[in-house]
Write a structure and sequence with these properties.
about 260 residues, alpha/beta, five-stranded parallel sheet, 8 helices, about 35% helix, about 15% strand
């Protein structure tokens, strides 16, 4: 099996890279550019309320470093605590990006844990889908909530692995697997990844991709970590496609019959 032919779809778009990366928390735009390049990502997410993509004329514009001609820009609603805030942010992003309708929806319910508010997320998703947005939605690792958001019309469901920025890795692999098994849209782990083995684990569970920011940006060497994350995602996906052996009691790798006396 050749990973170069292993494409995935979200909405109307087709991608090969299964690693999606954020653009916050880097020391400067040059480091952002280098890390994104090293990650091999095709989709780059941008917090519209925190990053200038044209709404602040005269200030450095991220799109001058990460061109929409090269990357699919995924505006997100980070920092929104109500459905109304999230909907307004998506409308602004669509205006700034000339009608771009692919967005990442997140509505936070608690400032300390940064856990999503599922009720407000559902309300925002219903509005955005009706307005023609293609919504990739950040949510808890609750399989029922994931099914509800898919039924609304979200084009991808993105359960957290652990709290945003925690780096704790996948806390509840059973729930992630249940979401994957029940979904008919792409499932991507979003939030909580800490290192490359976490990314590989997400892919081994059958996820279609992994989205991360802090795990790369907060590393001692973000560019090298971005490369490691790319390789972790690729290795995990290849292992999933290959089909792991069934866990069993110890058995010799070589046959015992016919041994030289």
């Amino acid at each position: 099996m050749d990973n170069r032919d292993d494409q995935w779809h979200v909405g109307e778009r087709v991608f090969r890279s299964r690693l999606l990366v954020g653009t916050g928390k880097y020391k400067d735009m040059e480091q952002t550019r280098r890390a994104v390049e090293a990650s091999g990502a095709e989709i780059v997410t941008v917090a519209v309320r925190r990053t200038n993509i044209g709404q602040n004329p005269g200030e450095p514009n991220l799109l001058e470093v990460l061109s929409p001609n090269r990357y699919t820009i995924l505006p997100n609603t980070a920092g929104c605590y109500t459905a109304d805030e999230a909907v307004r942010t998506c409308r602004l992003a669509r205006e700034l990006l000339d009608g771009h309708n692919l967005v990442k929806l997140e509505v936070i319910g608690d400032k300390k844990s940064l856990f999503p508010d599922v009720i407000e997320t559902v309300r925002a998703a219903e509005i955005l889908v009706k307005e023609g947005f293609q919504v990739m939605v950040y949510t808890t690792d609750d399989p029922v909530a994931a099914q509800r958001l898919e039924a609304i019309g979200c084009v991808a469901v993105m359960p957290l692995a652990a709290p945003i920025g925690s780096g704790l890795g996948i806390r509840n692999p059973l729930n992630i697997r249940l979401i994957v098994e029940n979904a008919r849209v792409p499932v991507l782990v979003d939030a909580g990844v800490g290192t490359a083995s976490d990314a590989a684990r997400a892919m081994e569970l059958g996820c279609d991709g992994v989205l991360m920011n802090t795990a790369i940006a907060a590393a001692q060497d973000p560019v090298l970590m971005a490369e490691a994350m790319r390789k972790g995602v690729e290795a995990g996906r290849a292992a999933y496609r290959a089909g792991r052996m069934r866990p069993q009691e110890a058995s010799p790798s070589s046959p015992l019959v016919g041994l030289i006396a």
